[in-house]
Amino acid sequence: MRHKILTVGLIAVICFIILSSTPVLCKSVDRGVIITAQENEGQAGESTGKTPDRSPEAMKVRGNLLIVSALSAALAIGVAAFGAALAQGNALGKALESIGRNPESQSKIFPTLVLGLAFIESLALYALLISLALVFFNPLIQLL
Amino acid sequence: MEAIHFVRYNLYGYTVNVDTIIVTWLIMAVFFVFLLILRTKLNVIPGKIQALIEMVVDFFDEQADSMAGPDGREYAPIVFFIFIAVLLFNWIGLLPGMLKVGRIPIFISPTRDINTTVALALCTFVIFNYYGFKKKGLRYFLNFIHPAHEVARSLPVYMLWLMIPLTFLFLILNIVELCARVLSLSIRLFGNVLGEHIVGTALILFTTVVLKLFVVAGILTYLLPLFVFFLSVITGAVQAFIFAVLTLTYIAGAVAEYE
User: Fold this and answer.
1) What is the pLDDT of residue B2?
2) Residues ≥6 apart with Cβ < 8 Å to A12
3) Given this model, what pLDDT does residue A142 score?
4) What are the domain boundaries of chain B?
5) Which of A16, A56, A90, B53 sits 20 to 30 Å CA-CA off A116?
């Protein structure tokens, strides 16, 4: 039994070492294979065959679009956090009230409360995702 | 921002996030070996680690019993696995030091990558459909038109033709709900973990980049993100708990018998 476990552990460790060294090995074999996120975006831009328009009017429109994107990202997460905070406060308050009225019910209320809070929070997280997309990888800029 | 940039690797035309895969396999290997070693030392009088694991297992056994009916204990192990996996995925981001293997940062939460969370959510989707189909056979597909037979029972006979459009409506609604389950499960976990990582990174950068306090930065850089790290200990556990309990709820909904 002990020998088996030792063997399995050894195999796992060897697998991990091989696994963790694969990027390094691949890098030494083929330098062009590892790509970072920025290079990836660059490739995506090239593959569509569009050269970005650099004229002053286009840059002005692009700047306006950036301002609107930043504002709308802030607005989206702000409004969503406002609503989610109100809802979570309401739910937590009601749960505390009922626990105070009937302390034995705490173990039954708590998992339901956590689940409910998670459902409320996921609504705010959709808005977080949208504002992250607007700030970090704005899809609207590529439409110009 | 280490939180949103990945080291990508082009494998036969598919882009692979190397850091996510390394951390995931590392956790899997370490926990697998840990459990195998723990298995040899099982005792009637539990030690500290055994007592901790037994507590978690007992909790999920009880939850499965109370949610999924008499033979709910069958579904407890997979829920336990999902809980442990998501918990370790969330907590490994708290370990200090972005150890770099080549250009690969290790010790960053794999759940900050949306591919991981979508994969976990798809696993959940497959699991509850499989259990429903296994338990109820072809009757499982009645779940997809779920309130239809109850509505049909309450309708008078001359209005039964209404059931044809209503069944289609229920079918579409149920399919949309199934897709929304995968979407909301994955985005909830992803958004929480990524949000914490971004706030943590922003606070780390705050002293040196924004305030330009290079003298006291040594202390402040370590002190400021502590609040976020403390929060993310709690949120990581809560998110893992929610993911596991939601999986159990979906399984319970799939195997439930409608009268």
Assistant:
1) 56
2) B29, B32, B33
3) 74
4) 8-255
5) B53
Taking alpha carbons only, the member of B17, B13, B196, B209 closest to residue B105 is: B17
Answer yes or no: is pLDDT of A52 > 70. Answer: no
pLDDT above 70: percentage of residues in chain A: 69
Average pLDDT over residues A4-9: 72
Backbone angles phi, psi at B8, to 5 degrees: -105, 150
User: CB atoms < 10 A from the CB of A78, how many?
Assistant: 12
Smallest Cβ distance to A125: which of B40, B106, B188?
B188
- Residue ranges of chain A whose CB lies within 8 Å of a chain B CB: 1-2, 5, 8-9, 12-13, 15-16, 19-21, 23-24, 26-27, 33-37, 40, 111, 114-115, 118, 121-122, 125-126, 128-129, 132, 136
Residue A127 distance to chain B (closest CA, Å): 10
Q: How far apart are CA B139 and CA B191, in angstroms?
A: 36
CA-closest candidate to residue A118, choices B24, B192, B25, B220: B192
The Cα of B8 is separated from the nearest Cα of chain A by a number of Å equal to 5
Q: Which residue reads 């030690």 in tokens?
A: B47
pLDDT of residue A96: 94
Distance from CA of B35 to the nearest CA of A (A): 11
- Quick: pLDDT tens for B62-114: 888 888 877 788 899 999 989 999 999 999 888 765 555 555 556 778 888 88
Does the interface ipTM go beyond 0.85?
no
User: So what's the pLDDT on residue B217?
Assistant: 59
Residues B186 and B114 sit within 8 Å (Cβ to Cβ): yes
Give me the pLDDT at residue A44, please: 47
DSSP symbols for A9-71: HHHHHHHHHHHHHHHHHHHHH-TTSEEEHHHHHHHHHHHHTPPPP-SHHHHHHHHHHHHHHHH
Q: Which positions 33-52 of B are in contact with A (Cβ < 8 Å)?
A: 33, 36-37, 40
Can you give the C-alpha Rg of chain B in angstroms?
23
Closest C-alpha to B67, from B259, B243, B256, B258? B256
Mean per-residue pLDDT over chain A, rounded:
76
Q: Could you name the CATH architecture of A53-143? A: Up-down Bundle (1.20)
What's at A79, amino acid-wise? V
Nearest CA in chain A to B10: A33
Where in chain A are the domains? 53-143
